[in-house]
TrEMBL record:
It comes from Cnephaeus nilssonii. Residues 70-315 form the G-protein coupled receptors family 1 profile domain. It is found in: Cell membrane. The chain crosses the membrane at residues 54-78, 90-109, 129-147, 168-190, 210-233, 253-271. Pfam families: 7tm_1. This is G-protein coupled receptors family 1 profile domain-containing protein. GO terms for molecular function: C-C chemokine binding; C-C chemokine receptor activity; scavenger receptor activity. InterPro entries: ACKR4, CCR1-9-like, Chemokine_rcpt, GPCR_Rhodpsn, GPCR_Rhodpsn_7TM. GO terms for cellular component: external side of plasma membrane. The keyword Transmembrane helix applies.
Length: 362
């Protein structure tokens, strides 16, 4: 069976399910009563591995370049130029950080797809955990943004700025993601085939794998999707009822956010759910079907990862205020290059003069 050539959130736990049981437990745990009849049928998946060696490095390279460029711009603008932030700004900044940390794990998995894991057991655990932390936290911050937007449209606007509740929510999101990554820290290791994979205790392998997988689906997709769906439905209904406003653009943005989330995340989570059911009931017994499932998880998880590249466009660059910040920074950088002297900058968040700030090159 295919050997976890893609990031570890789900593929490594299930894609070797039908080939070799040494994927799930250490050899020392096998006792003399073990039934070796399961080794009679071996599904050889060389073509799946060859597909991964070509597809994954190419896709990860594209996602890494686009995602790092977009999310780095977001972090730079929010961290150094936008001094007065709303709650949504804080959530977007945390989302960009999570996306960046997630994207920084992709080169490791690209190398793993081609050459196997070459960085040792500790880095296998840490990289797998980082992947899970940032993938899950990113989905949760999307839900937080939808909640704050819904509140801003349906309730009276507040000028209190960022307070303790906002910081507490961010802390809880990160802690929940870290807790969900504990199985990666505990069970991931480098097997004898030089692959970074989870190795579970034999007596817990089925229930533990299925439980972890279902938990990832609920926290990483179902809950954020339900929150986003309800919040954006209420927001859209409120916008439609408002008189004398230009409704088309915000409604189109909301529609784009929901459609992109469904298009990128739903296929991946459907495949994850099917694999969780297969782990419990061993429904896939045909080698060709198992190969198709392996390819499906490669493609759908890669598409899900690409959402981290689209977040800056959906949540930041489509906003007029952020585009104004970029234009001001670019204009000031051009002025600096022409004059080659210190220029006092106009702050973005207030019309009151402040101390000069450094220019930023995009």
């Amino acid at each position: 069976m295919y050997e976890a050539l893609i990031p570890p959130s789900i593929a490594a736990m299930a894609l070797e399910h039908n080939e070799s049981t040494d994927y799930y437990y250490e050899e020392s745990e096998i006792n003399g009563t073990h039934d070796y009849s399961q080794y009679e049928v071996v599904c050889v998946k060389e073509e799946v591995r060859n597909f991964a060696k070509v597809f994954l490095p190419a896709f990860f390279t594209i996602a890494f370049i686009i995602g790092v460029a977009g999310n780095s711009t977001v972090v730079a603008i929010y961290a150094y130029y936008k001094k007065q932030r709303t709650k949504t700004d804080v959530y977007i900044l945390n989302l960009a950080v999570a996306d960046l940390l997630l994207l920084f794990t992709l080169p490791f998995w690209a190398v793993n797809a081609v050459h196997g894991w070459v960085l040792g057991k500790i880095m296998c655990k840490v990289t797998s955990a980082l992947y899970t932390v940032n993938f899950v936290s990113g989905m949760q911050f999307l839900a937080c943004i939808s909640l704050d937007r819904c509140w801003a449209v349906t309730k009276a606007p507040s000028h209190s700025g960022v307070g303790k509740p906002c910081r507490l929510i961010c802390f809880c999101v990160w802690m929940a993601a870290i807790l969900l990554s504990i199985p990666q820290l505990v069970f991931y290791t480098v097997n004898h085939k030089a692959r970074c994979v989870p190795i579970f205790p034999y007596h817990l392998k089925t229930s533990l794998k299925a439980w972890i997988q279902m938990l990832e689906i609920c926290i990483g997709f179902v809950i954020p999707f339900l929150i986003m769906g309800v919040c954006y439905f209420i927001t859209a209904r409120t916008l439609i009822k408002m008189p004398n406003i230009k409704k088309s653009r915000p409604l189109k943005v909301l529609l784009a956010v929901v459609l992109v989330f469904i298009a990128t995340q739903l296929p991946y989570n459907i495949v994850k759910f099917c694999q969780a059911i297969d782990i419990i009931y061993s429904l896939i017994t045909n080698c060709d079907m198992s190969k198709r499932m392996d390819v499906a998880i490669q493609i759908t998880e890669s598409i899900a990862l690409f959402h981290s590249c689209l977040n800056p466009v959906l949540y930041v660059f489509m906003g007029s205020s952020f585009k104004n910040y970029i234009m001001k920074v670019a204009k000031k950088y051009g002025t600096w290059r022409r004059q080659r002297q210190n220029v006092e900058e106009i702050p973005f968040d207030s019309e009151v003069p402040t101390e000069p700030t450094s220019t930023f090159s995009i």
